[in-house]
Amino acid sequence: MRADLERIRHDALADLDRCADEAALEEARLRYLGRKGELTAVLRGMREVPEAERPAMGELANTIKVEVEERLAAIRRRLEEERLAKSLAEERLDVTLPGIRLPRGRVHPLMQVQEEVTGIFVAMGFEVAEGPDIEDDYHNFEALNIPRDHPARDMQDTFFVSEDRVLRTHTSPVQIRVMESRQPPLRVIAPGAVYRQDDDVTHSPTFHQIEGFWVDERITFGDLKGVLSEFLRRFFGPGTRVRFRPSFFPFTEPSAEVDIGCVLCGGSGKQADGAACRMCKQSGWVEILGSGMIDPNVFGFVGYDAERFSGFAFGVGVERLAMLRYGIGDIRLFYENDLRFLRQF
Ligand code: 2NM
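Above: the input record for the complex with 2NM. Below: its predicted structure, written as tokens.
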């Protein structure tokens, strides 16, 4: 018995000393001190030891048990410290390193212009309305006094979604929807995307428009001239020259196109080197707005009394405003999302 105990003590301490990690240590603990461990078995077999030897054997067994447990605890502490030191060395976290910079987005130049124009009209008492991009024939054409055989309805110009649904070719249908649902006095602008079968350096199949109208009793062509001149001078600068030319739109009568003095050549028609100005083609003027007094037929469609009410309406292209203001010659630059272009605004 004594020899057995001395051997277990020797083997157990040697085994514990050899353990290189905590898993091996746990295995060794079970081998000697576990429920089926060698030392546990000896302590359990104590009943069969002759009574005279029992106290001495019991004491020895207990001493060995305590010794093995203490060695185990010491080695476990050492292995834990080693594990901690290793993870501190390997998993170092430098909280002074700079973070990952998230790129910051910004407002697209077209939307900047749209917001600026909207702000000018809101300051003059207009409210903002929106409507669907897909319109029915009635709101996009019929109620705007655009007759069945008008070229604007041609497949060449309009994107048809079905027999009588189109991608809106202007934002005027938004104005129609507002007039259908509310009575004058009304001052409304409708900014938004519009769609036409057009594609070159100055035309894009998707572009943006701001259309507006003012309807009340006794609104005159003088109101049209005053509001639109004021808008153009707030947008292009107080010295901007403005002129109104007779024109034609199905939904207005009379109609006028509005020009501003060329922003590139200052109205001289000539570049600095004497060559013809490329922006105004030597005329000194560039077209910027369409406008007119709303045709009584349109009032008929929306149920307004054309004897009592009158109004003016206008439309302006957001891309065109941006191209003139910033001297951009190719509309496609707005849609390519080249950050070198976009970052300049
Ligand atoms: C333009 C030119 C002239 C216009 C007309 C209307 C409506 F719905 F009130 F009749 N909205 N916009 C209009 C008039 C648009 O764009 C060149």
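Notes for the reader.
Residues 144, 172, 175-176, 211, 213, 249, 251-252, 290-292, 294, 298, 313-315 surround 2NM (CB under 6 Å).
The chain has a mean pLDDT of 93.
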